[in-house]
Fold AraC family transcriptional regulator.
Amino acid sequence: MFLYWLEVSGVENAVDKGSGFLFHLNRHVAGSETDKHKHDYAELLYVSDGSLTQHVCGKDIDMRTGDVCLINSGCMHYESFEEDTFVIRLEISDMIIDALISNSMADEQAVDYIKELRKVLKNSESIHFASKDNYDNQLKDMLTALISECGVADMASAYICQGLMLRILWRLGTVYEYAQSRYIRKKINWLLHQEITDFIEDNMKDVTIDMLVERFGYQEDYFNRFLKAQTGMTFTEYLQDCRLNKSAILLKEDSMDVDEIIKEVGYRNKGYFYRIFTEKYNMTPAKFRKYIKEKEFTI
């Protein structure tokens, strides 16, 4: 609703004095193009409605509704439009990135991702995040909230804006597809792998591949191919490995009996668990627990 109000009211900029965020909200008519230009800041361009071609550092990137392009500072670029298109441009200065990285409330994993994203952007000049078939309303809602917060000038607004910016960049890394080279994809694929692993560990008792499909929006075949490339295992094999690793950790902690551990990691068949555990660790769970007590075995 807020984005619609911005469109019809003709507002072009929204600034948060406390955080330094600056937006440009523009509607472009069919057949037009922008002048060639570059900035002393990175630019996040979001296609709110319509489509365009981003001409950046000698590359032509076709973008549709919901797509995002990050463009590095100092990179010459311009856009051309075959239909009426509404875009949101967000200036991302080094000051903002530094603030995100140094934010004491930010998750360590998210901070590592921001650092990696900055490196990749400097190496590649631009990153195209392509939306999937299902339009991502959550990202649009996050941008709407960020723009809205930019109009609030109080002590908390800078921190709220930083949190929203972290969520926006994190969502791009976990939900969107990268139209990038093999080098860049390899650099950032670790994030999706970690997200999948975290989801499996948080839902270990009853997780299924259908739950992953619903959570991340990829097809079952994609998950098997992705995990095979990252770990050498299919989803079923990887889930079993995660469960056995977790059971070994619980055995080491010595706070639960074996039957409780079997249920905790998602198995119902005690005999089956004993068999696969013994195959992996070459001893039964009871002997494993005794061994690590005596030898201070590190898992």
